[in-house]
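Hi F.,

I've been meaning to write this up properly since the lab meeting, where we talked about keeping a consistent format for the predictions we share between groups. The idea is simple: the sequence comes first, exactly as it goes in, then the structure tokens exactly as they come out, then a line or two of notes. No screenshots and no reformatting. I'm using this chain as the first example so we have something concrete to point to.
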Amino acid sequence: MIEIRNGSKKYGAKTVLKNINYKFEDGKMYGITGANGSGKTLILKTITGYIKCTSGQVLQNGKEIRKNNNYIEDAGIVIENPVLVNDFTLQENLEYLRKMSDQPASINLDYWYKFFEIEDYKNEKFKNLSLGTKQKAGLIQAFMHQPNTYILDEPFNALDKNTVAKVQRFLIQQRDAGKLVIFTTHINDSILNKCDTVLEISEGEIL
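Output, unedited:
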């Protein structure tokens, strides 16, 4: 479970998140919608610990995030555009991340190459990949260790229709397995109908 208590964020005199109070519970899927600039991505950055609240708290299973410069644990995260090492190949990037994980032997990258149908691009440098393939790489790094929590910013961007359907089915399966799924979208995507809760954000507030 992730909880935001009285979470606010200011940049100078501007308040961009306004007294957010919300609990995201395991075993549920949350869609966060709103116009560009509404605060969707900021909420994700706050609950992961990428940014620190100006006031308020974020807790994961009762443990405060960023109290001691700590971040969210056991989470698969995609926020904004996936950024990997440009001069590494796709395979080199993902293999490095696999080895850095807690249980590298449990991760089967070949499964994910096949899942996303990108076997032919494994030896291409990341900087030469299409936007859609970069997005798939970002999702692989979030999915490959099948964490307890998924926090995904616009995960369907630049994906073809078939891949969107695959990713949506995967996220529903993870929710049904008792995991927490949180994602943002600025479009009225059909997966919102499968969410347990849809939150609309406007000007840094939950409507």
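Notes:
The mean pLDDT is 94.
The chain is about 25% helix and 30% strand.

If this format works for you, I'll send the rest the same way.

G.
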